[in-house]
Amino acid sequence: METNDEVWVPSGNSNASGAFDLREYAMEAKNAKSISSYEQLKREKLPEFLQWLSGLRERLRVFKTEGRKVFIVLGTGGTFQSAPGPDGYEPTGRLKESFDALQLPSDKTIHLELCDLMNLDSSQLTVEQWRFLAEAIVQIEDAAGDSYDGIIVTHGTDTMAKGASYISFMLRGFPKSIVFTGSQIPARQPDGDAKDQMRRAIVTSKLAANVNNRVIEVMVACGLKVARATWAAKLGDVTTNAFGPWNQPHQEFDATDWAKAAANGTLDRLAPAFLDFGTGKSDGDHEFASHARDLRKKDAYRPFTNITRPADLYPTRLTDKSLESFADHLIAQRVALLTQLGSATADDALVELALAAGNNGKIVMFEAPFPDSSVEPGRYKAGSAVRKILPFVRRPLPILNTSPDAFEAKVNYVQSELGMQPVANTVGLGDIYSAGDLRKFYDHMETNMVGELV
User: Is 426 a catalytic residue?
Assistant: First the structure.
């Protein structure tokens, strides 16, 4: 049997030795990327948006004086806005075309004001585009805050939960509901789910705007259960019940458990759905769960959208890793996010390595593996060292329990809001921070800002 010992080397992107260089290839791919950045969106899309914004208050006041609820629909693209192209579905056309195709029943109690903000597949959206979306919402509120009742965002499902989480933090305390929705089948395709998804989003918005029981939340309404944005999770690619709460109670959760949760004040952890459209009730009979937030329970509105240099989070499980490769991973991460196991246990040696990094200026946080996970000192020995108080920051490292999308959005929001900058970048640890900055960062991460923590 003959063997060929030659190593295949792709053409181009080669370093001095002639070997293929993946980093160089990545830089070329980045430079050739066609998705509009935040700055490009401001150049390309902002003029059209500002033209739409001009006179908005006066246009909406006409409908308000008729006693209607007014909702602004911001289109960002996604499957909802898509049509077949040569390579598959792609966002195209105007938002009005999609709404015309839906043929929603006439409702004289509301007015929907449509705005084409961008038209992108959600897999291509990042904090750059969500920042542009957030700033558009801020401008709408500034220009016509007294003339509309809520915002609906049409968004692709692949990154809807993450985008909605970013909006939750960037527009913390926003005084109206913001409802994200989308579809698994394009609005212009007959017999799809888009009509039902939009109907649920409108019903959710109308209920949230009820003057006697206002609900001021960023929500995802793209399925039978409406969830707080920071608790939302996509359930599948095919099911039209596309989203539900990340921390939905398990099937064995019974009436006794509900009563206990209500008595000890943990109902919001275990009953996260705000609305359930799967109960068979008519649209007029639905009502929000008691833990949906109204304006009196929210912080003051203080938008902050200047999220720059976001950290890429690569959660890694604290098991079955060599100490050398785990050390390399910690050094490479700007923010090390470490996932515990079953009942919040972990490999002791890996935990010690993580604590050593945290005690020398590295951002290190632990992630609970399940919504009902908790760390009870003494229950399990394995991994119990995570609760150690580190001398450098004079506190233990955070152990947070929230959805993965909300975790990432919160990390980047808090880092940017605090203006955190590393004090050094070392060979042995990568980016490191001062003890004071780390304490502030960890304190903010453990604060329940928008109801994200369970």
Answer: no
